[in-house]
Amino acid sequence: MELSLQNITKFYFKNLALDRFSVHLTPGIYALLGPNGSGKSTLMNILTDNLKADSGTVMYTNDAGISENILKMGERFREKIGFMPQYSGFYPNFSAERFLWYIASLKGLDKNTATLQIPEVLAAVELSDVANHRIGTFSGGMKQRLAFAQAILGDPEILILDEPTAGLDPRQSVSIRNYISEIALDKIVLIATHVVSDIEYIAKEVIVMKKGTIAAKGSPSLLAKNMEGMVWQVTVPSEEVSEMQMFYRVTNISVPPTDANHVILRILSGHKPTSDAKTIVPTLEDYYLYTFGTEIL
Ligand SMILES: Nc1ncnc2c1ncn2[C@@H]1O[C@H](COP(=O)(O)OP(=O)(O)O)[C@@H](O)[C@H]1O
Ligand SMILES: [Mg+2]
Q: Into how many domains does the chain fold?
């Protein structure tokens, strides 16, 4: 199975949201990493046939090697997809379970499969206890988990998740993340996020988006490697922190356990910031912060 996006362009009036965006996806987890407004949701809405591109095509290739335009496939394509949009609408009077039954019928699941899977997905997102409660009484995090549950219902071969951990506490984020990596085998999974830790350890490939185009693409470790020799650790007296921040991109400040008068800075810089600065192993987050600089700091 393959999904191929070819030269996707999308304008909202005169605002160019996607600019000849092309990418080829095979089974595995891909991250769509980029700041707000970079075009992640637009891309996902086009990929799930919820929004029409101005130009470009999305081709789906099945395991027999036959390629088709997804617009031509219509329902046959949509039933292969689990989609968690960035903003989900729910009927507040439905219970979580009834909502999932409703989704199961939209997805064309037979009754036996739904009977089996609905309790499974509710358990996976830790909503079994409130399965019969009205969604109107749910917190934002609970609704977010229900949105994830409806996406994975029916075991779709393509899973498109738009900021799946937004509004979740760290423990729930980890639980969703682990669940995604468990079920990802044989699936194409695309996760949009601006939270590096969501995808750093599970994505086979990170597609870094900037203003509707691909700024970079590669495995998390390969992207992090670009920063080798540019991530520094410097210990300075506490009163020098603001001066260092004026001249350097400081991405972390910590206090050493034994010395309250000094701080340890993590600095991204093309040159050695101080004579006693040491280089440290770069992470994907260093790369992301360096790429987007002041846009997100
Ligand atoms: N429905 C819309 N109408 C007009 N402009 C939009 C709409 N949706 C998105 N945009 C614009 O398109 C660009 C990309 O947005 P979006 O795809 O939501 O990015 P992301 O998901 O990365 O935050 C932004 O400039 C945004 O303001
Ligand atoms: Mg978005």
A: 3
Is residue 294 one of the residues assigned to a domain?
no
pLDDT of residue 185: 87
Domain that holds residue 254: 229-281
Residues of the chain below pLDDT 70: 294-297
On whether both 237 and 98 belong to a single domain, the answer is no
Q: Residue 139, Cα to own-chain centre: how many angstroms?
A: 21
Verify whether ligand 1 is closer than 6 Å to residue 15 (CB atom).
Answer: yes
Could you tell me the distance, in angstroms and rounded to a whole number, from the CA of residue 46 to the centre of ligand 2?
A: 13
CA distances from 126 to 77, 102, 146, 148, 261 (A): 29, 19, 9, 11, 45
SS3 101: helix
- Please say which residue of 102, 126, 155 terminates a domain: 155
Q: What is the pTM of this model?
A: 0.93
Helix (H, G, I), strand (E, B) or coil at 124: helix
Give the domain CATH number at 60.
3.40.50.300
Dist CA 182 CA 81 (whole Å): 18
**Does the C-beta of 39 come closer than 6 Å to ligand 1?**
yes
